[in-house]
Amino acid sequence: MQRTLASHYIRDLPDHSELNKAIKQQFWQQVDDPGTVRSHFFSGRYENIYLGLDKLPAMQMVMEQAKRFANEILDKPATLQAGFWFNSMAPGDTTTLHTHDDDDECLSGVYYIDVPDNSGNLILHEGAERIEVTPVAGRFVFFSPDLPHEVTENLSKSNRLSVGMNFGLKQS
User: Fold this and answer.
1) Is the distance from CB of 111 to CB of 165 less than 8 angstroms?
2) Mean pLDDT, residues 152-158 taken together
3) Which terminus of the chain has a smaller tally of CB atoms within 10 A, N or C?
4) What domains can you pick out in the chain, each with its CATH number?
5) Under 8 Å CB-to-CB from 47, ≥6 apart: which residues?
């Protein structure tokens, strides 16, 4: 596991191309279904789109790997549960400054599926320090849920697709 700064960890998923292609295809087939749950409406779009593993079976492998990485980072073998949501950013979209420390989260992260050039960087705010992370398809970035973060404007001509995730302790 590569640890960058005290604020975040980066881990790449090998052989992600075909998997990401399948996730992207399943996402676009399901996203407009009437039962799709969305939240966090800002600047004319929903930042969070919730589609479960039943609708996107290709996400199963990503979430299993994400959970393994989170267990390693937190040193809590097999005691974590995970939730996830999609973030589709059209050209011109941003994601506003926020944290994920609403409930019992122990770790947060993002997984990048489709990342056109100049489609927005992850900005982590650690005190006075501003850490800019350039997204890469097939990459996970993990960070503390109370770390303020945002995503800069998508300056590309295509949508960017990523998955946000939170990890908390399993409830008995």
Assistant:
1) yes
2) 96
3) C
4) 2-169 (2.60.120.620)
5) 39, 40, 41, 87, 95, 96
